[in-house]
């Protein structure tokens, strides 16, 4: 596969893997749509995995970067909204159950909703701190944060997160990819 990227970048077809270049460069719109759907659905299982996959597909030119970005964002945002809606619908009734209330404390089920500003900063920061996103989204749903506020905060943080991941995927492996590209190029030329 690395040889195929070398071939695509340098136009050298002596590697015997030129068919990979043709397959990836001629991917039709249905292939792109399937990749986008896979990224969006994949975000429901692993947001970070789907985002890194989208960034990798964009960096390797297998999916147009704007489509990959929008797919990753849509998957993250839809998953965020799903958790929030579920918590908003059933969260308060679950919070009143004895076995759940011991986990979350008394403040939620005794006071119900809190002030509008409560939880906004925590919600925004939770996108960037591992292990805090789910509790923050569930809390926002149980505390009945306004939907528009939740959507606005999660949209901005999802865009920031996807941008960060795309930038990291684009920058971090570049040195390793260049050395691998040189190594593979030497192997291809020696054949």
Q: Can you describe this structure?
A:
The protein is mainly α. Helices cover 77% and strands 0% of the residues. It has helices spanning 2-10, 18-25, 29-42, 47-59, 65-95, 98-104, 107-111, 120-126, 133-142, 147-171, 173-190. The relative contact order is 0.14.
What oligomeric assembly is this protein in? Answer: single chain
Kindly report the average pLDDT value: 77
- How would a textbook summarize the main sheet? none
* Global shape: elongated
Beta-strand portion reads under 5%
**Poorly predicted segments:** 1-26, 106-116
Structural class: mainly alpha
What is shown here, in short?
With 191 residues, the protein is mainly alpha-helical.
Write the layout of secondary structure elements.
Elements: H1 2-10, H2 18-25, H3 29-42, H4 47-59, H5 65-95, H6 98-104, H7 107-111, H8 120-126, H9 133-142, H10 147-171, H11 173-190
Give short descriptive properties of this protein:
191 residues
């Amino acid at each position: 596969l690395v040889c195929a990227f070398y071939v695509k970048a340098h136009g050298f077809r002596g590697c015997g893997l030129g068919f990979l270049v043709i397959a990836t460069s001629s991917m039709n719109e249905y292939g792109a749509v399937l990749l986008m759907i896979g990224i969006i659905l994949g975000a429901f299982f692993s947001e970070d995995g789907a985002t890194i996959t989208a960034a990798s597909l964009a960096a390797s030119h297998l999916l147009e970067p704007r489509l990959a970005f929008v797919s990753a964002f849509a998957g993250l945002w839809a998953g965020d909204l799903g958790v929030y809606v579920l918590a908003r619908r059933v969260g308060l009734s679950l919070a009143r159950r004895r076995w759940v209330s011991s986990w979350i404390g008394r403040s939620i089920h005794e006071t119900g909703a809190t002030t509008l500003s409560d939880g906004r900063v925590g919600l925004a920061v939770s996108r960037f701190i591992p292990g805090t996103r789910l509790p923050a989204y569930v809390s926002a749903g149980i505390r009945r944060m306004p939907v528009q506020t939740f959507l606005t905060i999660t949209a901005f943080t999802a865009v920031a997160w996807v941008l960060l991941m795309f930038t990291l995927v684009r920058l971090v492996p570049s040195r390793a990819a260049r050395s691998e590209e040189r190594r593979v190029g030497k192997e291809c030329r020696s054949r």
